[in-house]
Amino acid sequence: MQxxxxxxxxxxxxxxxxxxADVYNPATGEVQAKVPLANADEMAQAVDxxxxxxxxxxxxxxxxxxxxxxxxxDLLNRDMDKLAEALSREHxxxxxxxxxxxxxxxxxxxxxxxxxxxxxxDFTDGAGPGIDMYSMKQALGVTAGITPFNFPAMIPMxxxxxxxxxGNAFILKPSERDPSVPLMLAELMEEAGLPKGILQVVNGxxxxxxxxxxxxxxxxxxxxxxTPIAEYIYGRGCSxxxxxxxxxxxxxxxxxxxxxxxxxxxxxxxxxxxGAAGERCMAISVAVPVGDETADRxxxxxxxxxxxxxxxxxxxxxxxxxxxxxxxxxxxxxxSLIESxxxxxxxxxxxxxxxxxxxxxxxxxxxxxxxxxxxxxMDIYKKEIFGPVxxxxxxxxxxxxxGLAMDHEYxxxxxxxxxxxxxxxxxxSRINIGMVGINVPIPVPLAYHTFGGWxxxxxxxxxxxGPDAFKxxxxxxxxxxxxxxxxxxxxxxxxxxxx
Length: 499
Ligand code: NAD
Hints:
Elements: E1 2-3, E2 6-8, E3 11-13, E4 20-25, E5 30-36, H1 40-59, H2 62-78, H3 80-91, H4 95-111, H5 115-118, E6 122-128, E7 131-139, E8 142-146, H6 154-165, E9 169-173, H7 180-191, E10 199-201, H8 206-214, E11 218-224, H9 227-239, E12 243-247, E13 252-256, H10 262-274, E14 284-289, H11 292-307, H12 328-343, E15 347-350, E16 369-372, H13 379-382, E17 389-392, H14 398-407, E18 410-411, E19 413-417, H15 421-430, E20 435-438, E21 454-455, E22 458-459, H16 467-472, E23 474-482
């Protein structure tokens, strides 16, 4: 049995707490490694090392820090296949999807190469007589991030790339479900030239997280995961005086107008609803066709496409559409929500409950499901399922459709499919959701824009990556300096007012 490590002070370090978690291969249900769960002492050691290393790193000029990112991007490209394989083995997603996970993180590292420009600051020449005013963006010190299982490459990079390029040290507490890729990323950053101790990976669970929340030296915390934990981390982190940003769960609606291209809408829903087994915070889990006629046409297009989906392990060939979910507990939760949908009266149009994959009976595979006539009161509508389950809620008008999305507690992403520019503009302008797609089902913004939801999908005020990341990982210091004139002419003995 492989025993994974922490990555502290530039070396793989064995856990000393005596506590471990099992890391599964979700396709087979086998335990393939054990990951150490750090205690507060192990976390404190990493913080000490980070605090010692950080001032010299912050004093390294931004161009040199950016060059580490440049090299890191090269190394990610070099090791793309290796990273994708390690990611699929622990997460279960297909290899192309795993490579996409790395790629979307790589793009943020690429954006961070622009750090010298982003960190330039502002200068006002002559704010008053002999007075100049300038603002500097300085590193915070030791920062930390806590990440979810579903994007084990992308989300750590969304945090550590901007944190580090801004001159901070960063401690990553990745998901204990799939910790191998984060460890590999830390090694690659050092190979790219990062000094030891600037990026460390401390594996663990709640105990390690609480140690981060309560450590005086840690200045900021980034979190991505489920909403209840996001709320907890935001509350405790803020009350301990830290800068905190937390990104939580989602229930993303896609509205299909009667004039939409129904084939395109159905194709989009298949990818966005079932891709990565629905384990994406930007997955579409609710389809809202406007009018019964639209709904009937949509269901007719969806059913054969869903029935054709190929579910299998990442080793199962290029035509596998999605893999297993992450754990047996996740599978049980998804299946129990499906049962609740049936008992609460939704129509299970595609029933994947008896799905079974020969040779992988112990894997955590869930067949695709489609519910029609779902209503607002049902648990499958209210809760995030995080599985391959699409719910169709029929709306009788555009107003009812937009109202549904607006009234839902989550506000991560949403989409509208239409040929009508007026409806699309109205939707984009009125909707109270952070990321909006117009004929685009998963509107994940690119690295140079920012990523973040609204409502219960976020706690904090700055988004991830893009210019917001440079704000989150720096403090502004504004200097007002006055150099009175006249010094050149020798001493002046009369006290003169400012001219
Ligand atoms: P999770 O909340 O269970 O875990 C996230 C992190 O929190 C992990 O590192 C975990 O170790 C830690 N954690 C878990 N329980 C904890 C506790 N009681 N106290 C302190 N720390 C704890 O989330 P997950 O299952 O890994 O990820 C799936 C969730 O993440 C979904 O809800 C999904 O929508 C959300 N997500 C959101 C975004 C976004 O940007 N909004 C992106 C990806 C995933």
